[in-house]
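Blinded run. Sample ID left blank on purpose so nobody reads anything into the name before looking at the predicted structure. Input follows.
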Amino acid sequence: MALRRRGFVRVGAVVACCALVAGCTPAQPASAPPPTPAITTPTESQIERQMRLDYEAAEQAYRANRAEQGRLYKAGGITEATPEMRATATASYLRITLKALRRIKTAGWQATGTTEVVGVVANGGWKENEVGLTSCEDSSVVRFIDGSGNDVTPSTNRRYVQALKVVKLRGRWKVSTAVTTKVNSFKGQPCEG
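Blinded prediction complete.
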């Protein structure tokens, strides 16, 4: 019987040892987690693309018009619209711009400095052939000089937020109307830049 006991103890010791060895060996890696699905950017729909292109073209027309206005203010105003102005403006926006440039011409003034377009954003008004933009314009560096060299710049604040309507006429985008608001700062404005 004593022999049987020893054999039983030996078998038990071997089993215990194997269990300990198995517990001490590094765990086998579990199967790899499934791959994370690739994140795809949704494609732009045809209407979204058209809206984006229309907003870009409308902003380009507005900026081209502002650049032409700046050039004409520096030149001392005008009496008739230039082809560049007619290509980028129409309706009341063109009339108001011409009125201001005629006033400069009549007074014999010239401008120095350029109005800075701080920012332009779409304001949500999109229709086929008509978009809405909001712009922030800072004219605080523009100075007006009379024929004698005197600075005749108005002392009022000259920062503006404009709600613009830009229309497509015969294939060209043109600024049509503007509702202008004077502001002390562009902080909190949608087009603050």
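Unblinding after everyone has recorded impressions. The chain has one domain: 46-182.
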